[in-house]
Every structure is written in structure tokens, then in C-alpha cells.
């Protein structure tokens, strides 16, 4: 498979009265197109910070980062932003839906950023409403939805532009177990269809949906292992 993400010597630190406080140290990773990868580690390990850098939501770091062959470390903020809009979907733990917009309007927002024509926007939003089985919720506001429904809309918004990769930061952290399974099964299906999934989670259950786990501790990569994954386990059980 082709490499989608490569970092070399990636670091992030904050200047304090006592010198530099590092959040990430010498991160060298490579993620292939089509992988389902999980970052795990204790709180404060740097997982979410790394995800936000890879998702181009954080532009203040040192080192090298290549995304789909583009040297992100050499790009200006405007160029990074354009790359993010074209290739990346991001799912947040706290949903990040716009409270004063309906479900339909929330889904339309990323399309308007890309200057998609109104007629095409309508078709694309209707398709994703149907796919995620939330047609009946399209005129509701986020406050009228359950946590699981809000996260479903968050995932739908992330995939509406058919991104190369979805970055998910503790995507089931605020959901009960049934809702969490629904979201993870959805990620698994998207991955089967070719979307690269990179998630941060504390949940072993969520990690089991992917094929690879990278462990972080105190800003360092401390482990990188392939996992059996749920599909392989199920196949082995049947065999």
C-alpha cells in the first residue's frame, strides 16, 4: 500500500519559565493508505496533540510531516488549510456541531467551504442523511439530539466530502456502550470501503476494531504493534 502519512523528528513543546516543556518527542511514524490505526496511552501522553497536528488543526510544531506526498512542514497555513479541506475529515469527542444550525445545515457547512454548487450540496446532504439513517433528524438542532445522534451527525459531517482519512479524537468518549459500538462499526465499514481511520482512544474495545496500535507515553512512541482485529478473530472462531 502507498504511504499516506510520514513524520520524521516531529516535536511540539511549550516555553515555560523553567525552559521547554515537551508534549511530543521525535515522533517517527508512517501510516499507509487504507489502515485503521489507534493511538493509545495514558492521559497527557500527547495522543490528541499528535492527532491534531496530523489533522492539520495545529500548525505549531517542529520536524517533518508528509501527507499524501505533500511536505506539510514547508507549507504556509493557507496551503495546509486547503489540504485539510480536500483530504481530511475530523471527528471530535465533544461533537463540535454548530448549535444554531439544523442537522441539515451542519452537514452543508463543509460543502460550502469547498464551494460546492447548491444543487450538488442538496444531493450530497440527502445521500449522507439516508446513509446514516438520520433523514428524520434533518430539521432538528443539536440540542434536540441525544449524544449518540450528535456524534452520528459529527461522523456524517466528516465523511460527506469522501475524505482520504478520518481522524477521530475519543469519538465514543461521551457515549454509552451501544452508541459506541454503532459508531465503531460505522468506522469499520468506512475503512472497508477504503477510508483510512486514525483514532485516539483509551478503550481496548475500540482499538480492537483496527489493525494497528501505536502506544505513546510522555510524548514518546513506546510501542507499535499489529493487532489481530475483530474480523480476523471472528474468522478464526468460525474456522
In short:
With 239 residues, the chain is an alpha/beta fold.
Tell me about this structure.
The chain is α/β, with parallel strands linked by helices and 239 residues long. The protein has a single domain, classed as P-loop containing nucleotide triphosphate hydrolases (Rossmann fold). The protein has helices spanning 47-54, 77-87, 103-113, 118-131, 147-159, 177-192, 204-207, 230-238, and strands spanning 3-16, 19-32, 36-40, 62-67, 70-71, 88-91, 165-169, 196-200, 212-217, 220-226. The strands form two sheets. It has a six-stranded mixed sheet with strand order 6-7-8-3-9-10, sandwiched between helices. The chain is globular.
Helix content: 25-40%
User: How many domains comprise the coordinates?
Assistant: 1
Distance N to C terminus: 28 Å
Provide the β-strand percentage band: 25-35%
| Class of secondary structure makeup | alpha/beta
Outline:
globular
- What is the CATH architecture term? 3-Layer(aba) Sandwich
Main beta-sheet annotation = 6 strands, mixed
- Separate helix tally: 8
Name the poorly predicted regions: none
CATH homologous superfamily designation? P-loop containing nucleotide triphosphate hydrolases
Q: What is the chain-wise order of helices and strands?
A: EEEHEEHEHHHEHEHEEH
CATH topology annotation: Rossmann fold
**Overall pLDDT:** 91
Rg:
18 Å
Q: What strand order characterises the main sheet?
A: 6-7-8-3-9-10
Please give the CATH class: Alpha Beta
Can you count the beta strands? 10
